[in-house]
Structure formats: C-alpha cells, structure tokens
Write a structure and sequence with these properties.
Elements: H1 3-8, H2 26-51
Length: about 50
C-alpha cells in the first residue's frame, strides 16, 4: 500500500444521511448500557470532588 492510497481512500461518514444513534434498537441499547454504566462509575468520584 502506498501513502497516496491511504490519503485518497474513501472514509464513510457515520450517520451522515440524517440517521441518528439507534437508541430505539434494543440490541444497540443493550450493548451500550454496560459501557455507559462503567463510564459513569469511573467518573463519579471526579464529579463528587468537583461538587465539594
């Protein structure tokens, strides 16, 4: 592969045609929930410190 191939390659734009994040899709929501909970749990101590 040449550098020009990387530069000129097609890069799709996510949700570019008016689509939104598919929260209404149960499978998508099920996959995202653990990540959201983990992120919140990791950030909670920082938010608590900021509030004090």
């Amino acid at each position: 592969m040449k550098l020009i191939d990387i530069i000129e390659r097609y890069t799709p734009i996510p949700w570019h045609e008016g689509e939104k994040i598919p929260w209404h899709d149960p499978d998508f929501s099920r996959r995202m929930l653990p990540d959201s909970i983990t992120t919140f749990a990791l950030l909670l101590p920082e938010f608590t410190k900021m509030a004090l």
